[in-house]
Amino acid sequence: MAEDGLNPHRRDPIKSSGGNVAAHRRRQNAVAVGKERRESLVRAKRLCRVGPSCDDSDMCIENDMIIDEEQSILEAQTLSAVEELKSAVSFQGKGAMQKLVGALREMRRLLSKSEFPPVEAAIKAGAIPLLVQCLSFGSPDEQLLEAAWCLTNIAAGKPEETKALLPALPLLIAHLGEKSSVPVAEQCAWALGNVAGEGEELRSVLLCQGALPPLARMMLPNKGSTVRTAAWALSNLIKVLNVITMNNLCMCLSLLAYDAIDKLETCIPSTIRVIGAYCTYSTLVIKAPVDLGPDHKAATELIRVDGVLDAILRHLRKADEELATEVAWVVVYLSALSNVATSMLVKSDALQLLVQRLASSNSLQLLIPVLRSLGNVIAGDSHTIVAVLLPGCEITDNVIEVLVKCLKSEHRVLKKEAAWVLSNIAAGSIEHKQLIYSSEAAPLLLRLLSTAPFDIRKEVAYVLGNLCVAPTEGDGKPNLISEHLVSLVGRGCLPGFIDLVRSADTEAARLGLQFMELVLRGMPNGEGPKLVEREDGIDAMERFQFHENEDLRNLANALVDRYFGEDYGLDE
């Protein structure tokens, strides 16, 4: 589809902020986001302990529930509850409805009691067909709510347990309609959100069965837990979990002891070519096609639903932080997966609203998706930097201010995300580079380059490297911004880049070598080689003399031969 096609023409000598690289990075963010949510309190799947509209004490879990009740006892009680439900479903006498609702309520209580509910026991005993039968149209709301609640918690189980809900999906989707009561619709949305959180296969089934439009319409009201639940379910429905290269996966596994989730997010493959003694830089080369499945189409479909964009903007502007957080996650996936959605967000007030939320909130749960959304929008649409983030405009100054706030944060994820956003702004015009260079961000970045954890230092290095080179066309050698290069080197950034050369991360090593080439070539009065030698840069480059990575080996050897050959030091 042309409208969702990638723009391969935006380039930068150090870090490309557009085209395949930007799209790949935004999708990698989507991968990391999905994994982080699964590990955090805002999980991809959520157990329902309190009903969506819990005004009746019977609809809530008792305060004295036994969290650590013996699993065997729970399973025995579950088998008994399923048998009771079978009896209630077939019973036709007086009080049949009360008996059925009572049996459903007991089943729901058992599936809500433990941190690890007896889902397997319920499925093996035949609970799913009975619960599906209880979702039939014309049933009382109390019955529908209890049945949907049971299915919600079953869907929060293991993958094979979630897949057992396949027969229930058509009815759960049907009850999202306007004819359903709000509590029933919300509980069904919750169940579908758990199903969508399981993976691509079930998301595809939900999309084919038409789950997206009714969920999208549930986002349109101004407030309420229903809007929040619908937003969460939609973010699960459109997100992508499988867009990852084998190289990135292997790197993440090898770095599991060192925050593998963060590492996954910083794996941005790039290529470097050596022509003679000069290095040139190009955008990402994807060696094998990446199948995104239906997710990017789903994101485009969502943003095109009537009223959804206006609802997103309204919630970002006025909603409480809990609702704004869920809506911000929707924006994360929209801007990561769909160029159409990104373009529509840019042309709206989304950028200003994201900046306002970053400036006014101190909630980490809200700041993370808002900052990622801002980064996706800036990285994904050239119009944003060129025509919206104009130097001297209030919005541009506000963006820099909130990014500085995040750089000062104690939270590493905010620092890293802020550096990534800045690196893409720094990939813009010379005026954008000067704006960052002259701001409060520059001294913060210099300090982080020498003191921050590795993944943050690598993102920071991209910013500082981009500040030192002017935009260039094609694959030619980048033109230097001498003032920035001389100043940043004078303020002590070179050791940080040489440390990156020594790292085991090939991308970081390449970035360090690129910056060393700028120093060797661009420092006035031939000072570059002396500065590199003083910081043991020659030793750092020589470790690549027989390196298995051909690109790094050629680049390092070319720099050593050119600047530290037989004639080096003879003038002295």
Automatic annotation (TrEMBL):
<protein>
    <recommendedName>
        <fullName>Importin subunit alpha</fullName>
    </recommendedName>
</protein>
<keyword id="KW-0677">Repeat</keyword>
<dbReference type="InterPro" id="IPR024931">
    <property type="entry name" value="Importin_alpha"/>
</dbReference>
<keyword id="KW-0653">Protein transport</keyword>
<dbReference type="Pfam" id="PF00514">
    <property type="entry name" value="Arm"/>
</dbReference>
<keyword id="KW-0813">Transport</keyword>
<dbReference type="InterPro" id="IPR000225">
    <property type="entry name" value="Armadillo"/>
</dbReference>
<feature type="region of interest" description="Disordered">
    <location>
        <begin position="1"/>
        <end position="30"/>
    </location>
</feature>
<feature type="compositionally biased region" description="Basic and acidic residues">
    <location>
        <begin position="1"/>
        <end position="14"/>
    </location>
</feature>
<dbReference type="GO" id="GO:0015031">
    <property type="term" value="P:protein transport"/>
</dbReference>
<comment type="similarity">
    <text>Belongs to the importin alpha family.</text>
</comment>
